[in-house]
Amino acid sequence: MNAASYSYESLFAFTKTVFIHFGMQLEAAEIAAKNLILADLRGIDSHGIARLNGYIRLQKAGRANFNPAFKILHQTPSTATLDADKALGLNSAHFGMQLAIEKAKQVGTGWVAIQNSNHFGIAAAHAMLALEQDMIGIALTNASPLVTPTFGKERMLGTNPICVCFPSNQFNAFVLDMATSAAANGKLEIAQRLNKTLPPNWVQSENGSASTNAHELKLGGALLPLGGHKGYGLAAVVDILSGVLSGANFGPWVPPFVAFLNPLENLPGNGIGHFVGAMRIDAFRPASAFKKQMDEWIERFKQTIPIEAENPVLIPGELEFNETNKRLKNGIPLHHLVVESMQELASETGMSMPIAL
Amino acid sequence: MNAASYSYESLFAFTKTVFIHFGMQLEAAEIAAKNLILADLRGIDSHGIARLNGYIRLQKAGRANFNPAFKILHQTPSTATLDADKALGLNSAHFGMQLAIEKAKQVGTGWVAIQNSNHFGIAAAHAMLALEQDMIGIALTNASPLVTPTFGKERMLGTNPICVCFPSNQFNAFVLDMATSAAANGKLEIAQRLNKTLPPNWVQSENGSASTNAHELKLGGALLPLGGHKGYGLAAVVDILSGVLSGANFGPWVPPFVAFLNPLENLPGNGIGHFVGAMRIDAFRPASAFKKQMDEWIERFKQTIPIEAENPVLIPGELEFNETNKRLKNGIPLHHLVVESMQELASETGMSMPIAL
Known about the structure:
Two copies of one chain form a homodimer.
Chain A: E1 2-6, H1 8-21, H2 26-41, H3 52-60, E2 71-76, E3 79-83, H4 89-107, E4 109-117, H5 123-127, E5 135-141, E6 162-166, E7 174-178, H6 185-193, E8 203-204, E9 210-211, E10 222-223, H7 229-244, E11 272-280, H8 287-302, H9 318-330, E12 332-335, H10 336-349
Parallel strand pairs in A: 3-4
Antiparallel strand pairs in A: 1-12, 2-3, 4-11, 5-6, 5-11, 6-7, 8-9, 8-10
Helix pairs in contact in A: 1-2
């Protein structure tokens, strides 16, 4: 149940001030807050201010560092490996993406593998930085294990998202940002609140049998990969690029986001890992020609003959751009549990709560 | 029904000689034959020698050029755009991948967008070139439209495959090579031959309703994207990188593989498009450390607790490596229709047929 709506500015200011209260420098706090609240703006409520308290708890548990010293471990003209010094991914992936963009300016593309990091919010927050530079943006991350590989009944992979975005001209950019599991955990939580059963192939039970129970994860079950074994393969690619290539943890060893669960012992790497990239359009063809054709691509796909006239074919990212415009105008609705988590932070820090619209 | 089995060497030699007969130079014919028969070796029967006659027909129709002059239209230290001059993708993607590898040697990664090309066989044939150099290999291609975007009932996208492969040490390499449709067209053909119904969500009917009819494509239906809208998004990313970025055709304009169907008029680009890439492992971390951890990754995933002990979790590419070993030893079984298509080529060219094992 949504308690009330808040302006983007008020949630940004609250988040920034909380990060500063817990020791973050101003500039880093602004980056982290912007990337976090972008999720709320785009309608990805599970990844926005709802997680602010979780990030703070990670810091209190000594697992997140709000004043990290980023260190480039290795680099070539088009690549780098970054030790994020336990930063929030909200900051380290932003730094990594900026580095990738700088490299792309020099040699056409830039690719940065990041280790020793924490949860980075929505992948689109980082990949979309490339759009402003007429570049293609890519952002991947691994995450703590919830998904079983095909034929398995053990949680081995995170919901490991893939974001790829392309600039366009008159239309909004193409922004694909998707979990490689059949459904993200946030969708299960919604079904739990509404007491609904799940569609088939979202989860399986602890013994590996088919299930539509929205509470299956709490009973020892697992999320299923997107469309079966292919989704497992995609999640594995994200895990290897984010985890193995960077020197972070991978597979079942990726540390949990929640501070009350401890990482496993004898970890093979450092923290969680991300992989970000930027490709300059004009490293392939003139950006103006590409963006004009992206408009043609988008226009033609929007004109696909629909099954039902009232449900036209959508372009990846279209719903999120519409939601952003709506929420910038009407405010961001927050669930009452999210408001309560903010109230906890407000009373702990002595800050005032944002004023509801 | 399989007619007989043939040695790898005999199918390679037959294919090479056919390409030479129709005007290809020796070196190009060896590359094309190797890439084509690799599909048969890996058990991807739909993409191997079964298509040889189709490539020849494309040449006869003036749509494929067996003596192309590849032209680099634009490049930066880490990128290039290639005009394939109507080559078979079997050759142009190979050339593009070699160029990507050379660029990766210089600046860490290399990325090549290819326009004005034709069908490139299996994506793995190209991506796996990177493995020999301790690089990560990537190969994508668009293809003629068979797949409808979510909510649509019009064929707008190909089965647009994604291949990503990683080198390892003691184990076989990790090789994900997958169509972004729920099922590749070859799987429908198998169901047609066996007179079987399809699993749900592979195809839909002409009016957009659910179907399990293996003949649905002939009735005006469409393939469905992998796992719904996410598969549509992935297929779109492949289409844009392969088609829009390179200056090839995209979406519904991608020319058909079969020579008896003509391309549409007023095409927005040239031929079909591919996108290939190579990333040097040691542009991120020492290759030996990465490959050792890939072994750990593979070993741990093979040990995933299985639902049924007799069906262990597989590593992407594992089945294909097993099939390769089996077929190198026992020969490659060919369907009688494939043998007949080879006999047609043999009598047309005056060549002798390979001798069955």
